[in-house]
Model the fold of this input.
Amino acid sequence: MVENGERILGVLGGMGPLASAQFMARLTLLTPAARDQDQIPAVLWSDPRVPPRLRDPGAEDPWPWLRRGLRGLKTAGCGAVAVPCNTAHGWYEQMLGEGLPILHIVEASAAELRRVLPSGTVGVMGTATTLAMRLYQDRLEALGWRCIEPSREEMATSVTPAIAMVKGNRVAEAYAPLAAVVRSLAARGAGAVVLGCTEIPLGIQAGPSRELGIPLVDTIDALALAAIRWAKPGLLEGSEKALAGKALEAAK
Amino acid sequence: MVENGERILGVLGGMGPLASAQFMARLTLLTPAARDQDQIPAVLWSDPRVPPRLRDPGAEDPWPWLRRGLRGLKTAGCGAVAVPCNTAHGWYEQMLGEGLPILHIVEASAAELRRVLPSGTVGVMGTATTLAMRLYQDRLEALGWRCIEPSREEMATSVTPAIAMVKGNRVAEAYAPLAAVVRSLAARGAGAVVLGCTEIPLGIQAGPSRELGIPLVDTIDALALAAIRWAKPGLLEGSEKALAGKALEAAK
Done:
């Protein structure tokens, strides 16, 4: 099925499905293109039935669902896979074992973080599982940033409910609790905040997020940019400077 | 690969890719769901390299690309296919020949049109090819509506360039020329306008489209609703009344 030299992006999605759709939209809008034919061919495997990505004893294992999707994308001819779900990266090594390169959302986000906050203290938001796995903290600390997280209470009363709101199609309601946590992280010294769950940028963008006055790393956009770099090497070189400028401007 | 009783939606997309992403977002947001697992499993085959859907002599034939996508979706286990590109429906019979049910965007849009304008004069916007094929006009006239179209000049100076703007990631610029044509159709007696090219709702929604004061049939939403009816029979019954109410309210 694969034609010589074509690069088809696989997207293992549905976790959640709105974040997958947003990934596809941002992949399109961030690709410098004058017409459809300049855009990146992609196959999105959006299976929202994947059980919640939990590490709790007794929780249903999402792995058989992730594996099924990866095999479907491989059969479709995809040459690499983006997974627009941060928590699913807890299964990164297993996913790699299926034989396709997987673009790592934390590496992609670290590249974007570097543009807006080259060093210093960064706030990391995410699901409770992502934070407990230290998916971002270990990597970002190894790269020289200091990480702070929402408190246990902020997780329970704001972040976790807001993620559930987005997943329940109540996107606009998610803004206020997420914005409160961004403000709290900024007050505790964060110079930028990584939105390390793909539902969080959806909620934050449903409100006046520019008024928060702090650079936000949208992990959907970061992964889309990594995918464009994979599919069309060199294409972003000029426009990435413009994007970095925009991010800094929004931060003012 | 298909488990007993599961209904996986195939989406033959990339024409254009932003419209496909919007279809996936609207499929999610229009599905009554409290959590990811209530949403519809789907595979989006987004191949923006499909040549423009033209019927011109000498134009490259899009059919081999459409066929490749349909075969990919069939292999992935999809049970029916939605094609969020109106003009591609000019190849509807050929697509059906690949053995999967194809949800017809014109039938889906006629169902939505009936909610907002049970009879009377309807404006039909679309690509020049869609209008020349009379994809909407023949079907809507058979169902009792009278159809009017943009003039040749409006097509050349407003609709066709606006569709190209959306495809070139200049979405916001497309609002003004599209809005001007909606107003012109309303002035000529249209009681509603069918946005019969999936790039058109993207452009219209980039501006204050509610100020246009006329019901607009979003063919992306119409197709998403048809897909939900296929995947989850009966689920929309209550909420569709609410949607119809919202559409009428927006029209006031």
